[in-house]
Design a protein that fits this description.
By secondary structure, this protein is α+β, with helices and mostly antiparallel strands. It is built from 14 helices and 22 strands. The protein has a domain of about 60 residues: 2-Layer Sandwich (Dna Ligase, domain 1). Strands 3-22-21-18-17 form a 5-stranded mixed sheet. Strands 5-4-19-20 form a 4-stranded antiparallel sheet. The chain has a 4-stranded parallel sheet with strand order 7-6-11-12.
Length: about 500
């Protein structure tokens, strides 16, 4: 199946490059070569049918014809060596540490603003900044307990951070379910490879939720009551809410299931009210408490913010974390890492131009046909303009929007994203991928080995988001193998490397 495979000049996750081959994937490549294409296709079809029967689906709000759909699953895994994962793990931990210090600072002394490390108006004027959080000190000074970091790998094999997801990052359920599906459908491909487990995510999440829970009165040794708060069955990630509640072994609740009495949160049960200590919320700030934020919200719990402010209940993630994953603030994260930790960023950013700045706006307008332009507040791949692939009418429309509201946009160069062999109707072909590792932080930070590999399934598709036709792969972090030196930063892949490039946008 792999004999005619061609990565078209892009860095390949299974093969690497001619000058820097991926030695850690040799065993998997040998097994793939022994598989029959028709058998692979049949087993892939069985796997997708099982995903649907298990209810592993998501909702696309923009598609009125589809109530729910499965996240397409590609059966050829993405493989990460042990040394490379150690590097990524340290980079993710470093980034989360700096962002949590940044959030504590802006809601307390605001030294980072006084020292002009980041423009004050970019923070205080941010739609996600919550002045109500000013002066509230959280356990371990941690605001982002659950975080997804979107990574891309460029032409020379270097990983870069594309976006941070510090509000309600989704997709971890697919990481675990993809692994279970591979174990059932492809034991012959996985056997004796040595792959790190992803099955303890629920236990790690529960442990963190208990660590941040308020202390009970002396002599009360009751375990903290943790719940997962969901907007309900019509949320696009409702399957994940069910999955995570099950994995943690905690109740799944909606706003109507909770009430606040004497600034404490209680869950309504058939046996009466039960005190709630810690809440993993999958509801955005605006809808969490109609008394503190959006008065029209019917999804939240009236009075929950006051209980939170007084330290009577823990919320993950904290209110106001959206400032830290704003696409404009993202450009300053390497400076924040240097400011708070005195270190250079382990995983570099993608170069970013903040269009609110006159020089950056001029550069973007002058190079519109070469850049990717993104609105700072959108997600799911919506609202972006991919300059090299855009029509003249689309470029003209983007230009008008930039001139009308430059502060709402950033621009980035095109990144020649890495590819991974993917099962298609025509055979095995290269498709662009990104990677979203998930991390849990309370007393310490733990990173789930691997993360969600999203794949642009359609040939030529540039956006990997599930809402726009993307799928996912199982991500294998190897437990051992040959130690590989990273390629030099500007290493050439091939003198005849394709000039076509692509770009992703976080869900």
């Amino acid at each position: 199946m792999l004999s005619s495979y061609d990565a078209n000049g892009f860095y390949d996750e299974l093969f690497g490059t001619a000058s820097h081959p991926a030695l850690h994937t040799e065993a998997v490549k040998d097994r793939l070569r022994q598989l029959d294409y028709d058998d692979l296709r049949r087993r892939a079809s069985d796997a997708e049918r099982e995903l649907y029967n298990l209810g592993i689906t998501f909702l696309v709000y923009s598609d009125a014809k589809a109530v729910d759909r499965i996240l397409p699953f590609d059966v050829i895994p993405r493989i990460i060596s042990a040394p490379e994962w150690t590097h990524l793990e340290k980079g993710v931990q470093q980034r989360i540490a700096a962002l949590n210090m940044f959030l504590h600072d802006i809601y307390h002394d605001q030294k980072v603003l006084k020292d002009k490390i980041i423009p004050a108006e970019l923070v205080l004027g941010n739609a996600n900044y919550r002045p109500q959080m000013q002066g509230i000190t959280l356990p371990f000074k941690t605001y982002i307990q659950i975080m997804g970091v979107d990574l891309v790998r460029d032409h020379d094999g270097t990983f870069r951070v594309l976006e941070d997801n510090g509000r309600v990052p989704s997709g971890v359920s697919y990481v675990v379910e993809n692994r279970h599906m591979m174990q059932r459908a492809f034991p012959d491909l996985m056997g004796d490879i040595g792959i790190r487990s992803v099955d303890n995510y629920g236990a790690k999440l529960l442990e963190a939720m208990c660590e941040i829970a308020p202390q009970r009165p002396e002599g009360d040794n009751t375990e903290p009551q943790v719940v997962l708060l969901s907007p309900g069955a019509y949320n696009s990630a409702y399957f994940e809410h069910i999955f995570l509640a099950r994995e943690m072994g905690v109740p799944l609740v909606e706003g109507r299931d909770l009430t606040v009495l004497d600034d404490k949160v209680y869950m309504k049960t058939t046996g009466g009210l039960r005190r709630v200590d810690s809440i993993y919320r999958r509801i955005g700030d605006d809808f969490l408490d109609p008394l503190a934020f959006n008065p029209d919200s019917l999804l939240g719990v009236p009075g929950i913010f006051e209980a939170y402010r007084k330290g009577n209940v823990a919320l993950a993630n904290a209110i106001g974390t959206g400032v830290a994953d704003d696409k404009a603030v993202y450009a300053y994260v390497p400076r924040l890492i240097k400011y708070y930790l005195g270190e250079e960023a382990i995983i570099p950013n993608v170069e970013t131009h903040i269009c609110r700045e006159p020089d950056a706006l001029k550069y973007t307008l002058d190079n519109l046909d070469k850049l990717v332009v993104k609105p700072v507040g959108e997600a799911g791949g919506y609202g972006i303009t991919i300059g090299p692939r855009a029509s003249q009418a689309e470029l003209d429309d983007c230009r008008a929007k930039l001139l009308d509201d430059p502060a709402n946009y950033i621009s980035q160069p095109m990144i020649p994203l890495s590819v991974c062999p993917t099962l298609t109707e025509e055979g095995i072909g290269p498709r662009h991928v990104d990677l979203r590792p998930f991390a849990i932080t309370a007393r310490n930070t733990w990173v789930l080995p691997g993360g969600l590999t999203r794949v642009a399934l359609k040939k030529g598709t540039l956006i990997v988001n599930s809402s726009q036709g993307g799928g996912s792969k199982d991500t294998w972090v190897l437990t051992e193998g040959p130690v590989e030196e990273p390629p030099p930063p500007d290493a050439s892949i091939d003198p005849f490397q394709s000039q076509s490039q692509s770009q992703t946008q976080s869900q």
